[in-house]
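Researcher: Good morning. I'm working through a list of sequences from a screen, and I'd like to move beyond sequence-only analysis. For each chain I'm collecting a predicted structure so we can compare shapes side by side. This is the next one on the list. No need for commentary yet; just the structure.
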Amino acid sequence: MSKVFASLGMSLDGFIAGPGSAPDNPLGDGGMRIHEWVFGVESWRERQSIGGGQTNQDDDIVQGNFARAGAYIMGRHMFAEGEAGWPDPPPFRAPVFVLTHTPRDAWVRRGGTTFTFVADGIDSALAQARKAAGGKDVQVSGGAETVRQFIEAGLLDELQIHLAPLVLGAGIRLFDGVSPTLCLEPARVVASPRVTHLTYLLTAP
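Model: Good morning. Structure tokens for this chain:
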């Protein structure tokens, strides 16, 4: 069966976004610093409709994740932060299922991306995403609350943390409120000058 995975940038003090995150302040105050490593790699730039970029071990990680993801799931807050800023076509190039309490019509974009709004919970979103993915993996893109829901429900198979060498001091922590019985099995470490890529498998306690 296909896997469900999340791939998130994180500061050394555990934050995946800074304080004050909002549609006009994506990732909050200082949060973009967590992702500076990705802005120059070729695969990310191509998905943003920008030319050029580096091909290195960081690019291999980004390219691999794009290749394996057949569908995406995200929370309404993450969608609101990205809606105004994503290019058309958006970087996903695959179906995206948005968890929300306020249903709306599907938003069709170029490049194979349709945003479908799911108001009946993570199980429904995952079932729809698995079907749309056509046997490929499903990526839970964020934000923190959405990833925590999948962790707590035992629905997340793999967690990638891209650890940036910086301290934010405040913001949104991924693991706030997560049960201390969470079992993470280290699977891979890839180090580069600007970030350390950590991959964990989630196993039953």
